[in-house]
Amino acid sequence: MNPSTTTAAPAPEQGLQARGISAGYGDARVIEDLSLSIAPARITALVGPNACGKSTLLKSIARLLPIAGGSVLLDGADIHAMRTRDVARRLGILPQTPVAPESITVGDLVWRGRHPHRQFGQRRTEADERVIAEALMATGTAELTDRPVDELSGGQRQRVWIALALAQDTPTLLLDEPTTYLDIAHQIEVMDLLADLNERTGKTIVLVSHDLNQAALYAHTIVAMRDGRIVRQGPPEEVLDARTVSEVFGLDCVVVTHPRTDRPQIFPLGRRHLTQEK
């Protein structure tokens, strides 16, 4: 073959893609023929009402839930055909209700995040110690290292689980409601932390959120879901308008522009507000 006419093989698609996937629990199908491409090195927020399929979608692309149809690609490769260790080195996952082994300490739990990066029986390395320390410091849990996880408050436990996900040190993080159980100050600290990680390291972050205003402030892309389908997706300023909030949540609202960020912010209107004169 003439070298001048040789064409290089196309580079594999980067990031995560769900292609026509269907998934559910038992005989109950939650999502059907759903496709989504996750933008690399960006923060994507999945929003929508309860039971709309957000967590099912996240678990499906994380390989925590078997899919009944379609495919999930990670950097162009079928994620279900990959070795578990290889997936764990590339995807860090925080499920909605993680369970810690009884009596395990914070330090030992976060250390488990390093398991995909070590061989069986291998001792901690300096790199392990550095990553673990950074994860504990970033989440404000360093002083809890020797405490049993089951003695912590809900907010403390949530920050420890986030530390474990950070210690896994993967290019992609999948987080199901990462600010659950946290007070407003710690919620913002966690969201700032995720935004800093994304900006500094280029991590791809996908999170499920019930807080539309936080999602609007921190995400590059909003994926609004209802009844197992994607209603709209795109930048917050293009997706989060009164019509979409009404279609997705069945809720009337006023949408204003945040004075500092120019991102949309939603003020819900209940039945009592709709009947009140201004």
Question: What does this molecule look like?
Answer:
The structure is a single chain. With 278 residues, this protein is α/β, with parallel strands linked by helices. The chain contains 10 helices and 12 strands. The strands form 3 sheets. It has a 6-stranded mixed β-sheet with strand order 6-7-8-3-9-10, sandwiched between helices. Strands 2-1-4-5 form a 4-stranded antiparallel β-sheet, with helices on one face. A two-stranded antiparallel ribbon has the order 11-12. Helix 4 packs antiparallel against helix 5 (154-167). The longest helix has 18 residues, at 184-201. The chain is globular and about 65 Å long. The N and C termini lie far apart (77 Å). The mean pLDDT is 91.
